[in-house]
Amino acid sequence: MKIGIVCYPTYGGSGVIASELAIHLARKHEIHLISYARPVRLNMKGHGVFFHKVSVGSYPLFNYTPYTLALASKIIDLIRKKRVELIHVHYAIPHTSSAYLAKKALGKDIKIVTTLHGTDVHLVGLDPSYKPIVEFSMQQSDRLTAVSESLKKQTLEKFNIDREIEVIYNFVDSEKYKRESQNESKEKLICHVSNFRAVKRVLDVVRIFGRVVKKIPCRLYLVGEGPDKSSVQELVRKLGLENKVEFLGNTLDTSRILRKSHLFLLPSEQESFGLAALEAMSCEVPVVASRVGGLPEVIRHGIDGYLAEVGNLEEMANYSQQILRNQVLRRKLGCEARKRVLGKFTPQRIVPQYESLYQRTLAK
């Protein structure tokens, strides 16, 4: 098959999954990935994926660069020159709209698969400025997928569409994300990875850590960048935790940090899946997270991690202390987390689901 994959190149889950999917598919198919910059997971050599950059010119007429049109033109060019059969877009805004525009401009029955990742549904997609076109674009897709049952339910409840939505979970490279040794140092390591947006509640991560560090020797690694970073840094200073909290910024390889962590915190307001949690689980790191969105589909409360209501910092801190104090419990949770990943969320289990979806779509 000749497949075009469209995604954002950022560190968020949609870009990571699209890139990883492209890399695995390229072993058997001709894969062309389209974005305005090379995705972070495509920086390594030898992956076999053809990358096509969308260039957006700057014109005095436009206050905002017309990326939707530039992307549509790039898709048209790709279909004409490479005879791509199917376009798989990750994140509905504006990728699905661009793919549909390209399809109509060409006058060909190019198949469009849209994968919904979350923010494109429950945040941006519901904005009155975007909702009508998002709704229309989803309706025009040949196939719709969602990364969790929770996201599927939200989409069907909030948008007037009559399309079937197939749930295909995210996955993690379990060979890359695996624990190399049990680090039982006296000072335990707590980790959080995100894009530092308000929905991630990184301030709560610091507040939870502030409670835990009073009882247990530990450090906090904060991985990522984003609009809330300065507020988080200010809270760290206010709580006097400068010597206990490290800001590591964006990193191409979070596995090297997760491998030596003892606990992963994800107290988000909303998570359609929780890829960062899955990567931690693959490294046998127990997760304490919010009971929201798709997280209960990934984390089994009391088996491989713990879930609490959003904003219940005391309960999350108590779960965190239990895990850090009790080595037997921590290893048991970590072992179950790894088993959970291997049983349900590996490329070997997920990538064939996308291949089957493509084949069924092309056969329509």
UniProtKB/TrEMBL annotation:
MF (Gene Ontology):
glycosyltransferase activity
What GO biological process term is on the record, naming one?
bacillithiol biosynthetic process
Q: What protein does this entry describe?
A: N-acetyl-alpha-D-glucosaminyl L-malate synthase BshA
Q: Which organism is it from?
A: Aerophobetes bacterium
Top-level lineage group:
Bacteria
Which classification does the entry list for the species?
Bacteria, Candidatus Aerophobota
Glycosyl transferase family domain sequence ranges? 174-340
Q: Name one Pfam family in it.
A: Glycos_transf_1
Residues annotated as domain Glycosyltransferase subfamily 4-like N-terminal: 22-147
